[in-house]
Write a structure and sequence with these properties.
Layout: H1 6-15, H2 22-45, H3 74-78
Helix pairs in contact: 1-2
């Protein structure tokens, strides 16, 4: 595995067109090194017999079942509209004549 060095951080900053001070380069060298070490640790544990997961425990009930229910009538839907023609919302045109 490659070590994160200040020169590497400066090179990455140059590629990303980010101006970094010497203090920022030193701080980011340590932070990026810690991230690379953490990823290496996970890679050691992630063997083919360990299934990939997005969450440590199964998530249940995030959303309700999408079931059809009672729909609004046209009158109910248009009741709060600022302008309508009796069956549709009326809005100001935003496209030119060519449309």
């Amino acid at each position: 595995m490659s070590e994160i060095t200040p020169e590497r951080v400066q090179h990455l900053a140059m590629l990303a067109r980010i101006a970094l001070t010497d203090d920022e380069v030193q701080r980011l060298t340590g932070e990026l090194g810690a991230i690379v070490d953490a990823v290496a640790t996970v890679q050691q544990v992630a063997t083919p017999d360990v299934p990939a997961t997005s969450h440590p425990i199964p998530l249940v009930g995030g959303m309700r079942v999408d079931e059809p229910g009672e729909a609004l009538t046209t009158e109910q839907a248009l009741a709060g509209a600022p302008d309508h023609d009796g069956s549709r919302f009326r809005v100001t045109a935003i496209l030119g004549e060519e449309q």
